[in-house]
Amino acid sequence: MKTHVLAILISGLMFSGSVIKAQTSTAKMPVDTETKLITYKEVVTTTGTPADLFIRAIAWVNKQYKNAADGTKVRDPETGLIEIIHRFEITKVEKGTILLAGVVDYSLKLELKDGRYRYTISSFNLKSVSRQPIEQWMDKNSQTYTPDWDDYLKQLDDQTRKLIDGLKLAMQPPAVKKPDTW
């Protein structure tokens, strides 16, 4: 009898721990008010002409993506526009093993102007038999909702913010070298 009560108590604690984890891991996703899609968008001020910024952006693209020519759909130095379609993987843990949970496609648009640039990262879709918009993961009232979706959203947010941080670092003006005086 004591063993049975202890088992119920432990099960209850494990369940409450998983509920707490699911609630705390939910990322606050930036949703565009017009399109209702998850969209990361910002105008960043920096020094440089559109041509300078284009050179920095292309250098970052070539470093960031293994097959940059394939992922880059538009590279237009005259208009200062770069468009990229790429993907990243999301994972899940089952029985202590990290497994592939899916591949998420996204689009990245860079617009370059004098002294500033704007990035827009959007069109996140889960790659499967047909593309599925990931915004469904935010609907906790859905009949197909699973707590894994909270973790997937956090992974998406983490990977997107890491991408943005790398872009911002690469778009900074190069350090001024001091002349070697001796």
Describe how the helices and strands are arranged.
Elements: H1 2-24, E1 40-45, H2 50-64, H3 68-71, E2 72-76, E3 81-94, E4 97-113, E5 116-127, E6 132-133, H4 148-170
Antiparallel strand pairs: 1-5, 2-3, 3-4, 4-5, 5-6
How far apart lie the N and C ends? 86 Å
The mean pLDDT is: 84
Beta-strand content bin: 25-35%
- Overall outline: elongated
Q: The CATH topology is what?
A: Alpha-D-Glucose-1,6-Bisphosphate, Chain A, domain 4
H/I helix tally: 4
Mind summarizing the main beta sheet?
6 strands, antiparallel
Pattern of helices and strands: HEHHEEEEEH
Describe the structure.
β2 and β3 (81-94) form a beta hairpin. The protein has 4 helices and 6 strands. It has a single domain (26-170), classed as Alpha-D-Glucose-1,6-Bisphosphate, Chain A, domain 4 (2-Layer Sandwich). The N and C termini lie far apart (86 Å). Strands 1, 2, 3, 4, 5 and 6 form a 6-stranded antiparallel β-sheet that branches. The protein has 182 residues and is of the alpha+beta class. The radius of gyration is 22 Å and the shape is elongated. It has helices at residues 2-24, 50-64, 68-71, 148-170, and strands spanning 40-45, 72-76, 81-94, 97-113, 116-127, 132-133. Helices cover 36% and strands 31% of the residues.
